[in-house]
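Bug #77: duplicate submission created two jobs. Keeping one. Sequence:
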Amino acid sequence: MIDKARERLIFALDVDSLEEAQRWVALLHDKVGVFKVGKQLFTRCGPQVVRMIRDGGGEVFLDLKYHDIPNTVAMAALEACRLGVKMFNVHALGGAEMMRTTVARVDEQYPRGSTGRPLLLAVTILTSSTDQTLLELGIDRPVAEMVPRLARLAADAGFDGVVASPREVEAIRAACGPDFAIVTPGVRPAFASVDDQKRVTTPADALVAGSDYLVIGRPISAADDPQQAAGKILQEMAAALDAK
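Kept job's structure:
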């Protein structure tokens, strides 16, 4: 069960240099199945960092949250596919047309079920956001309502899953069914601090709730012994998977 847990653990590679990224990949490759490359690292290092992770046998979650006109996002999605990433994401708030166009372009070159096709994910509401955040944007519906609404929009457009807080997993499952992938940030084991995440839960609770992948960064990177911290998280995840 540890191997299954490892496949579901995504380490947030929130660093600012290729050398630092290489250090973390070398340190954690036996405990982490997927490495998340976000805006900071990709802006600094570009596709080189994705290739470095893949050359080392790791998988990549390209977390760039594309949000633009439909054709621009669709073409960026094709480039993500060509890089060989395991998953990438867009903002569901970009709308149904943007997501449908992206799916159509990816389908043309990477049909469903084909080798090399990544998971297409949509971001619902950022885990740092609250109901007040949405009100400031002119959205008068609460987070708990917006998340499943956006998830259903993504599913109807042909996306494979969403990135969402574990507290909304049950609602997403009800809206989108059991086979819809859910990638969950905002996960904090009991030994770690909450930091700036507002809607958080433990790894075990997230898996029991129905999350498929867990994104964890600072609880590992800020630990005195990152390998030990990752190992403890894997054990917690494995126990939760075994109990399901």
